[in-house]
Amino acid sequence: KPCSLDALVCSIRMIAQNAENALWIPETEADNLLLHLGFRMGLTRYENVRTGILMKYNGSVDGMTKSLYPAIAEENGGNATQVEKSIRDAIHHAFRTGNRNYWSLYFPGAYGGKCPSNELFIARMASALKNRERVQNAQIQYLIAENE
Fold first, then answer.
1. Where are the alpha helices (DSSP H) in 1-62?
2. Is the pTM above the cut of 0.70?
């Protein structure tokens, strides 16, 4: 049927914006960050780190010991002490064996030999996810504005 060109352009923009927004999946981005840093997927400790980052990213927890570790334990099994140790072990292993250049992007000066704490690591990775989301949203807005 005949329709106005403005209505067609508006519909195409809306579809494109929804498709672009659908591409942002925090879980996938968290996986990408962790894999680049040298974490090994599929291990319980990997799942604990990933869950912690996503919980912090979503703002569903505040403190580490009193809220994050018990929440991860509830979701992934185990207890808060086991979760804390598994996260610490995963971070230390990836820090020793992972890509030094990638680590230095998020933890400048860390290769003085000191591994980041659980709290610092999870907070920094959650912040990195938020920044990546902001960048993607800005790119989408730029593309929409450019095509107007």
1. 5-23, 26-37, 44-58
2. yes
Rounded (10°) angle between helices 69-76 and 80-97: 90
Coil, strand or helix at 144 = helix
Q: What is the pLDDT of residue 112?
A: 66
| Alpha-carbon dihedral sign for residues 99, 105, 111, 115 | negative
CA geometry: angle 46, 68, 114, nearest 5 deg: 60
* Structure tokens that stand for 49 in this block: 């780190």
- Contact (Cβ atoms closer than 8 angstroms) between residue 1 and residue 28: no
Ramachandran bin of 61, using left for φ above 0, alpha for ψ from -120 to 50, beta for the remaining angles: beta
Rounding to the nearest 10 degrees, give the CA dihedral for residues 10, 16, 18, 24: -150
Q: What share of the chain is helix, strand, coil (3-state, %, to 5)?
A: 80, 0, 20
CB of 82 closer than 8 Å to CB of 41: no
- Residue 20 in tokens: 């672009």
123 pLDDT more than 90: yes
- Pull the structure tokens for residue 21: 């927004």
63 φ, ψ to 5°?
-80, 160
For the segment 51-83, what is each residue's pLDDT rounded down to a tens digit? 999 999 998 887 777 889 999 999 998 899 999
